[in-house]
């Protein structure tokens, strides 16, 4: 579904990505883990056309994605849950959710999808009238995910969905990711919380200073001693 080949990105004289290769097959949950500043978010921004690569190719279903405009990504079935939630603080929860369907014309199905989002996140239904800026961090993250789902994506990319959240809320978010995946959505997950991400991932990549240094199944990386030491808090 998504294939990255030899992708390099430079900010001034600094190499943010150094020839990475990554593949997301349809129906998978794929995670990219690594420390802050490793290049994970730059990878997503490159896919969305927000950063122009120095070298490399990105393909979506065989089509070269770098030739597409960012605003066309939704039409191609690609949606992004950005880092930091980025909800519209002065709009209500319901208004934020509806913004996710701004390109759709099927009003009846939009209403059904709003109810589906509410079934995933009952707390949002309770607060549908509330301004998004008054929600807790966890509720704003739920809203950002719900808004992204309203475009009916085939590929959902999530940038640090657990960042800054309490452990119980993180557990809820990852349970929801699994529920979304069950509906047929392919997921590319960028995470610092390696333990949570690897437990749900079919395939995982480890990024360090702009390079992919390791890949494997989620289970393989969970049992790898180097990964345990570097990202899971285990001692060698």
Please give a structural write-up.
This protein has 236 residues and is α/β, with parallel strands linked by helices. The protein has a domain of 127 residues: Rossmann fold (3-Layer(aba) Sandwich), CATH 3.40.50.300. It contains nine helices and ten strands. Strands 6-7-8-3-9-10 form a six-stranded mixed beta sheet, sandwiched between helices. A four-stranded antiparallel beta sheet has the order 2-1-4-5, covered by helices on one side. Strand 1 and strand 2 form a beta hairpin. It is globular. The termini are far apart. The model has no long low-confidence stretch (mean pLDDT 92).
CATH architecture of one domain: 3-Layer(aba) Sandwich
- What best-fitting shape do the alpha-carbon axes yield? globular
Q: Would you list the SSEs in sequence order as H and E?
A: EEEHEEEHHHHEHEHEEHH
Unreliable residue runs: none
Please report the first level of CATH classification, the CATH class of one domain: Alpha Beta
Spatial strand arrangement across the major sheet:
6-7-8-3-9-10
What is the percent of helical residues?
Answer: 25-40%
Overall mean confidence score, pLDDT: 92
CATH topology of one domain: Rossmann fold
* Number of separate helices: 9
Question: What's the alpha carbon Rg, rounded to whole Å?
Answer: 18 Å
């Amino acid at each position: 579904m998504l294939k990255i080949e030899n992708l390099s990105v430079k900010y001034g004289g600094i190499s943010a990505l150094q020839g990475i290769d990554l593949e997301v097959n349809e129906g998978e949950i794929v995670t990219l883990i690594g420390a802050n500043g490793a290049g994970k978010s730059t990878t997503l921004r490159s896919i969305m056309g927000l950063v122009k690569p120095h070298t490399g190719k990105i393909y979506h279903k065989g089509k070269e994605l770098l030739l597409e405009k960012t605003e066309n990504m939704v039409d191609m079935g690609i949606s992004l849950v950005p880092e930091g939630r980025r909800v519209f603080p002065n709009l209500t929860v319901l208004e934020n959710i509806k913004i996710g369907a701004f390109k759709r014309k099927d009003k009846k199905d939009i209403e059904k999808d709003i109810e589906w989002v509410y079934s995933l996140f009952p707390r949002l239904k309770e607060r549908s009238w509330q301004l998004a800026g008054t929600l807790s961090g966890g509720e704003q993250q739920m809203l950002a995910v719900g808004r992204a789902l309203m475009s009916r994506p085939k590929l959902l990319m999530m940038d640090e969905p657990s960042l800054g959240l309490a452990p119980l809320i993180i557990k809820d978010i990852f349970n929801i990711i699994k529920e979304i995946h069950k509906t047929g959505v392919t997921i590319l997950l960028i995470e610092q919380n390696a333990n949570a991400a690897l437990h749900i991932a079919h395939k995982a990549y480890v990024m360090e200073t702009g390079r992919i240094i390791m890949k494997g199944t989620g289970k393989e990386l969970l049992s790898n001693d180097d990964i345990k030491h570097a990202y899971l808090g285990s001692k060698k």
